[in-house]
Design brief:
The protein has 696 residues and is an all-beta fold. The longest helix is centred in the first third of the chain and has 9 residues, at 5-13. The protein is globular and about 80 Å long. The two termini are 28 Å apart.
Length: 696
Amino acid sequence: MKAKPQLRLARVRQLRRAIRTLLAFCFAAGLVTTHAASPSLQPLRQGKWPAWPQGEARDVKVVGRYAYVALDTAGLAVFDVSNPADPVRVGGLDTPGSAYGVAVSENYAYVACYYDGLQIIDVSNPTNCVRVGWHDTPGIAFGVAVSGHYAYIADEYTLEVLDVSNPARPVRVGGFDNEWYSYSVAVAGNYAYVTDYFAGLHVVDVSNPTNCVRVGGVDTDGWAVGVAVSGGLAYVADWQAGLQVIDVSNPTNCLRVGGYDTDAYVYGVTLAGNYAYLADSEAGLQVIDVSNPASPTRKGGYDTSGRAWSVAVSGNYAYVADGEAGLQVIDVANPASVALAGGYDTSVPAWGVAVSGNHAYVADHTAGLQVIDVRDPANPARVGGCETAGLALGVAVSGGYAYVADGSAGLQVIDVSDPTNCVRVGGFDTPGEARGVAVSGNYAYVADDGVGLQVIDVSNPTHCVRVGGYETWDAYGVVVSGHYAYLAAGRMGLEVIDVSNPTNCVRVGGYDTSGGAWSVALSGNYAYVADWDSDAGLQIFDVSDPTHCVRVGGGDGDYATYASHVAVSGHYAYLMERDEGLLVYDLSNPTNSVLVSSYKTPGYGAAVTVVADRIYLAARETGLVILPALPNLQFTVRVDAAPGVPFTLEAATDLSALNPWTPLLTTNVPAMPFDFVDFDVKLTNTPQKFYRVRQP
């Protein structure tokens, strides 16, 4: 922010009235508020919950009191694990690509980021991680190891060797071409041990990093994906073939000496003492006694709640990167009797959102229903929630109850009259996968993928009863108006169903869209469809005659390809798209809708709703995002002044000018605060602009 209090005071003295408060916003440097007494100004900033991006845990390393976790689409996360029973997230960085592997050396974390190569992050202050360098590898970066001044990257068809003596400027110095698909790498002495999927284990001499030479290896029985090396032995996570133990004491003549076939598919392996700790996908953690490498035996294990991808051991604890279940901490002090000590759920993608009163209700996938207090849109806070039996994909709120479309668990009804104490009171296990829900009167209408529309009588929420439905097979979203339910029916497009008699639902019309209809919104005589995988992501239909739906808009031009959800407010449509985020269309003329604004969400755009001049986005791994202004995502400033007394809001772009301030408006309002939308400044722009308010 640019702060010039002396200059401001000089300008104030030139004015006829005393200026009580000044506020300057510099978009290029962030939004910062400075104010004294009333009246005051503050920017209505973007809000987000949770504070950190969420993702599936793919890899983990532990150094000292910190665990460093590769969180797929959410980048790097850093946890304080000084109390293993209660890991605390203290920092991280949302990397440009999907974080699959991580290595830590001295003050730097080296992250293998899929299509975005190697990212180098300064973690000397874990609460303020900073990206300092990167290198775009030629393939897909899955795994990384660091030894001395070199980083070794398992990069799809190659092993890449980078000189990282200057982390800000990594330089490729050599490499080695694999036969198939390199997934991970370990380095010991002068050798790099690379897993090459179908081709097993390669041993590469890297004593001269500029001239890497394969000297030996073993074609394992399974698909080699992980490796650890200790005492002349390589322990290979061989997927369906379990653990393979390879004697590499003579790298030119590697020999398999033993192995252990686990119950599931082994992704990762690490060594500590006489034990190999395996990340065994759906079977969780396996502890294998390898004191006799020729005859490994299972000592114990723990079936984690997610899919175990990687494991690290420090002291008496094993830290498991457990996919959708996040970080799991297992007490392995007694390998024969391991137990869960703690954990941190990193993957609770937001799929749906509804707003009622002061609260947003988020369908949070594996975490069920989350209730977020949004009275301060810039600082949303969780106040309650309720775990559900399935995967929460959609939500509607009516009369003190939240109705959750809970995937394979069907409809869940949750009493939210006390948002701090949400209680499931009933539900109905629909035959398909509940993806969307709408409530009208005494009925809940469920988009039940694989079956169609389900109509549930919820007049007694503790005893929900199915009374009717209509079979469409695909079903993703639903809205109800009057006697009709409008169903986004995937490959079948838009379906209009007469539900005047819920026990005898009848299709009366529809339209076969060019893609897959995922969501539908209704406004006046028009239905707006988010059409996935088509050349016209927004489809607009005249439904004034439900028996004869006519497509009137959408199509060529600025339209999303992978549209997932749509909401309509006033004469604007708000469309969520997988890659582009939020797109805003002017619908003044539905036959010629115009793209007027956009907002790139920090995560996969899943759902949107608009309430009381606020836009609420369910952005999958990012969670809930709140944008403060309608309709074109303009910047909004909030005035807090004495009600009933005129005030003047002014703006400036150059404080050094002789008379920099230009009045924006003078008004008198009976209630405060007052929100002013600056239509000249959009959230996606980065101009420098200053504001102030004065009042007698």
